[in-house]
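Justification of resources, computational component.

The compute hours requested in this renewal are based largely on the per-chain cost of generating structure records like the one below. Each record pairs the submitted sequence with a full structure-token output. That output is archived, and it is also reused by downstream analysis tasks.
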Amino acid sequence: MAILTDKVGINVLLEGVDGAGKSTVANLLVDKFAKNGFEAIVVKAPDDRFRDFLSRNSFSRPGKVLLYATDMLESCKNIIVPHLREGKVVIQDRSIMSTFVYQRLLRTNGDDSESFVLRNILDRIGDLMRQMESDIRCAVLVALLDVPARVAMERSAAHVKDEYETAELEEWARRVCCYREMIDMVRGFRVDAMRLSADEVADSILEQSLQRYHMMTADCVPGTNNTDQTYTSQTNSGQTEGDA
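The structure output for this chain reads:
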């Protein structure tokens, strides 16, 4: 049996459609955690190097899922887990949840054979991530920056558009609904990223994260793994494994 670290990290997973403000909030959170005595880093999924690779090459949906899975595994093993083990804060700008949403892998989007296989692949990726995290303690918050589809679409219009940002409004609306469905399944934290300013959104996420951290540090018992698991996927039953 692995020996658990005596330190408790904080893992904040920021989710939402393009234009929700995740990157802005992630950077604000780094400073806000620092003011509370925590060292924090931001991990993007995929990272900038990987994004550039994807933008210069064309892949099928299975190819994209496998590439995203590779990027997530590498980030988990080499960045996320080592920092959490040291009791630091890891702020993830997207997670495996986004792969389900953008690659249309929720059961409500269809149950064709390809989707079934890809969901199973991501299930196994989740298993590997849980194994990597089995010897650490961390408080986890999955936060959905919730914005209406039209607002997100309009905000993204100012960016250099990729294949996902050039979608029609109907597709943006589907993504918003999927994120809301998934955040409810994992009992995550939904914050109104349209009515609140980015600073207010960051403050609310900080408060929720610290509450979970203090609850975990109060409940930690040596030799007991209190890690909150959130690397989950849509299984055949349509449910998620673990809570956030």
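The mean pLDDT is 85. The longest helix spans residues 61-85.
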